């Protein structure tokens, strides 16, 4: 009896995302505070060459992950995305753990971004109430998601446009300054080779920046969730993913290069780049050097839009994954109900409530709980990436094992199996290597290690607990379900 209902529920999700929405979701997810703020610390810690190499390596990994996800999402678009593919091509228990890991990741991100937004808004209103601002921002994000899927897509489109415009302006101003057209004398490559640059701090510094670069790129995988509500996933998803490579190259690699060329890595303020002091953002420093007035205020507004964009995406993604878990019997059925506009409203309400409760916890914990949420969420993102690589490797092997023609795939990831294997290896290195940054001459920072790695045992408990209770097994390649949900109409 449950199967027909499940299928009916699934088809009720409305396809309201157009090509421009899909493109901006892919791009918007990859530009945020990691670029606007953390990039300064990356250059200071590893030198301009170390930061550039770290971001380039992670950018290549993300591109491979997106092509892997694109191959599955165009053939079988589903709002459950990662957990659906993991359950179909690896093990139902693995899919269960992936789904709840992803929901937790983005539900927690909502809380963290609400906290960040209140810090940013106090640049203009230092004596205002954090509680009031958090309520207003949560209400805004909730309304954008509850009205229609197009409301989310349209808001994310404009959030991304703001970020793109600023990065393009930054690159133009930066290039003009490098050649001396703006800001006085030409800087050239002087800062890139000063001291022990371009590489500074040794292997541990490089690994530490590698982690920061990885966190900066998280969010690009949202296109896999959005594919389930795309008007034409077989055209829109490949187009968005192909553009990811060039946008990573332009908006990240070139931006890091400009920062490394214009700001000496020895500049003390680079290490202080955070939400509480927008004046030390490398973007603000360079705009100031160029003589542009109100640089700090403009960057504060841009970073606020980035934070709201992340919260908006978190609300959308976690709601859709919770809906898919309920549809597949892995969460209470009430979360699979949809309103008249095709929105999983119950899932949206509980996700918003969870985000608000976590925000209160971060307030009462004097920032300790907030820091824990941020670190735990970041590690969840790497677990998701690992799952995408494993699922795609198994998907392609199952496709061949069952005698299917690869020409049936609307979009084919190049460099298989190198792509998913490379992404898997790099993600594993990042997860394990993160602990090295907490080992210093003063000892081991056990609190930070716990805060960062708590997501790993939680994931294992979900995976192995479901496996033990349901008696699931790794699905043989010839038994993987390649038909249910496959789109043959595009």
From TrEMBL:
Residues 21-472 form the Amino acid permease/ SLC12A domain. It is found in: Membrane. It comes from the Bacteria. The chain crosses the membrane at residues 21-43, 49-66, 103-125, 131-149, 161-182, 202-223, 244-265, 290-310, 343-364, 370-395, 415-436, 448-466. Keywords: Amino-acid transport, Membrane, Transmembrane, Transmembrane helix, Transport. It holds the Pfam family AA_permease. The keyword Transport applies. Its main location: membrane. It is a multi-pass membrane protein. InterPro entries: AA-permease/SLC12A_dom, Amino_acid_permease_CS, APC_YAT. NCBIfam families: PRK10836.1 (NF008094). This is Amino acid permease.
């Amino acid at each position: 009896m449950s199967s027909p209902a499940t299928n009916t529920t699934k088809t009720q999700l409305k396809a309201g995302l157009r090509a421009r929405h899909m493109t901006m979701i892919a791009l918007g997810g990859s530009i945020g505070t990691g670029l606007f703020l953390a990039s300064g610390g990356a250059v200071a810690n590893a030198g301009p060459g170390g930061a550039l190499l770290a971001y380039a390596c992670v950018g290549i990994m993300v591109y491979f992950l997106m092509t892997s996800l694109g191959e599955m999402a165009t053939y079988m678009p589903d709002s459950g995305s990662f957990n659906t593919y993991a359950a179909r091509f690896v093990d139902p228990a693995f899919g269960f753990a992936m789904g709840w890991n992803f929901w937790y990741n983005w539900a927690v991100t909502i809380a963290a971004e609400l906290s960040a937004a209140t810090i940013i808004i106090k640049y203009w209103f230092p004596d205002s109430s954090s509680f009031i601002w958090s309520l207003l921002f949560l209400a805004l994000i909730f309304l954008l998601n509850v009205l229609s899927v197009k409301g989310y897509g349209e808001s994310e489109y404009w959030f991304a446009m703001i970020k793109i415009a600023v990065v393009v302006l930054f690159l133009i101003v930066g290039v003009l300054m490098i050649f001396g057209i703006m800001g006085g004398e030409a800087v050239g490559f002087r800062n890139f080779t000063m001291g022990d640059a371009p590489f500074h701090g040794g292997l541990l510094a490089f690994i530490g920046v590698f982690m920061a670069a990885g966190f900066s790129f998280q969010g690009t995988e949202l296109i896999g969730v959005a594919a389930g509500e795309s008007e034409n996933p077989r055209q829109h998803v490949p187009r968005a993913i192909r553009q990811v490579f060039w946008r990573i190259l332009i908006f990240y690699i070139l931006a890091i290069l400009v920062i490394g060329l214009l700001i000496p890595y020895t500049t003390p303020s680079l290490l202080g780049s955070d939400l509480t002091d927008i004046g030390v953002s490398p973007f603000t420093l360079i705009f100031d050097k160029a003589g542009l007035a109100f640089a700090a205020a403009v960057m504060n507004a841009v970073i606020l839009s980035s934070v709201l964009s992340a919260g908006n995406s978190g609300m959308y993604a976690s709601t859709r994954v919770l809906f898919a878990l309920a549809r597949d019997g892995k969460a209470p059925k009430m979360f699979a109900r949809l309103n008249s506009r095709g929105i999983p409203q119950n899932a949206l309400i509980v996700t918003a409530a969870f985000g608000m409760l976590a925000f209160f916890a971060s307030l009462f914990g004097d920032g300790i709980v907030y820091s824990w949420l941020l670190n735990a969420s970041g590690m969840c993102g790497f677990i998701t990436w690992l799952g995408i690589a494993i699922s795609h490797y198994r998907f392609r092997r199952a496709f061949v094992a069952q005698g299917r023609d690869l020409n049936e795939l609307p979009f084919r990831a190049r460099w298989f199996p190198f792509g998913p294997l490379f992404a898997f290896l790099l993600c594993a290195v990042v997860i394990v290597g993160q602990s090295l940054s907490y080992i210093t001459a003063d000892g081991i920072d056990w609190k930070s290690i716990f805060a960062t790695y708590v997501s790993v045992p939680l994931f294992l408990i979900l995976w192995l607990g479901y496996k033990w209770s349901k008696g699931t097994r790794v699905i043989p390649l010839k038994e993987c379900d390649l038909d249910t949900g496959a789109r043959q109409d595009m």
